[in-house]
Amino acid sequence: MAPNVITLLGLSFILMNSLTVLYYDPYLNEASPRWVYFSYAIGLFLYQTFDGCDGVHARRTGQSGPLGELFDHSIDAVNTSLSFFVFCSAAALGYSPKMIICQFFLLCNFYVSTWEEYHTHKLFLSEVSGPVEGILCICLSFLITGFFSSQFWHITLMNLQFGNNMIDIEVLDLFLLSLCIGIIFNIAAARENIRKYYENEKTNTLVGNNTEPFTEYDALKGLLPFFIYYISVFVLIMIDTEFVSFPLFISIGFSVAFVVGRIIVAHLTKQYFPYINFPMFIPSVQLILYLITVRMLGYDPSKITFALTWFGLGSSVGIHAMFMNEIIYEFTTFLDVWALSVKHSKYT
């Protein structure tokens, strides 16, 4: 069996979890049968297991290479959003700005990790890494929900008063806060690793097939596309909270997965860092079209947001699919390998 098939099989468990959510709890705010939450935990744990086995199997069979690295990172990027989507159902989070904010932290962690690998040429796993401790925490959360129901996450622990407003702090808030704090430390660690790399680098760094002096501050420019993209996302949902929906959530996930894929390709082929990525303009296009159709032409906001969110999803998925198809073709042709089967086994 080809290592990439193992990677895809791992993703299939997450897809089954996501389809189960869409069947039992499409609005992410209702209780599902208890067995569903246990199946979420099993599915995510199997994904983690398969994700860990594909690399081992690739090295054992002599199939490890750049295509496998691209495949693995691209699948992980998609899984980041899909797994959190399943968690939102388990915690009855609903489609809310809080959901998009938490997705921002998760995808930021993944983006920064890939950005770090591009510059240091190493994949660092921090003390609290997403692929290990992060996934196990989410698995544990599914088990907790299975035993105590989704209401567990909405138990009020304390009340904070700001002026005349009373804010309830729930178990879910503390859980999400702890995840975000861990991610912030991971981001800081990635920046520190890049700083050390360029401090210790005695020779010029090879970038874009040219030998050019490169510094930590040059590397930090690679964070701008991600944060500018998310600024446009936050502006979009501030204009109309109805944009917060399943298609927007998945569109964001595929847009970031596309960018991560391009960074990996640039890393593997020693190209310039990809600052311009078309899917990251989708929220800006949605915002402009919304302002024209709703504010200027007076169309129904609900119908426009519905159309624009699905337009964004179709665009992001389509662009990502074309990118993966082209890259897989180029890699398999150049390396003389097959993507989903073994062409040259070391045992033959």
Describe the structure.
- It contains 11 helices and 4 strands; from the N terminus they run αααααββαββααααα.
- It is mainly α.
- The strands form 2 sheets. It has a two-stranded antiparallel ribbon. Strands 3-4 form a two-stranded antiparallel sheet.
- Strand 1 (156-162) and strand 2 form a beta hairpin.
- It is globular.
- Residues 206-211 have low confidence and may be disordered.
- Belongs to the CDP-alcohol phosphatidyltransferase class-I family.
Low-confidence stretches: 206-211
Number of strands: 4
Q: What structural category do the secondary elements indicate?
A: mainly alpha
Q: What is Rg?
A: 21 Å
Q: Output the strand order for the largest sheet.
A: 1-2
Task: Summarize the helix and strand pattern as letters.
Answer: HHHHHEEHEEHHHHH
Number of helices: 11
Strand content: 5-15%
Report the principal-axis shape: globular
Number of domains: 1
Overall pLDDT: 86
Please give the alpha-carbon distance between the first and last residues. 14 Å
Family: Belongs to the CDP-alcohol phosphatidyltransferase class-I family.
Keywords: Membrane, Transferase, Transmembrane, Transmembrane helix
GO cellular component, one term: membrane
Organism: Naumovozyma dairenensis (strain ATCC 10597 / BCRC 20456 / CBS 421 / NBRC 0211 / NRRL Y-12639) (Saccharomyces dairenensis)
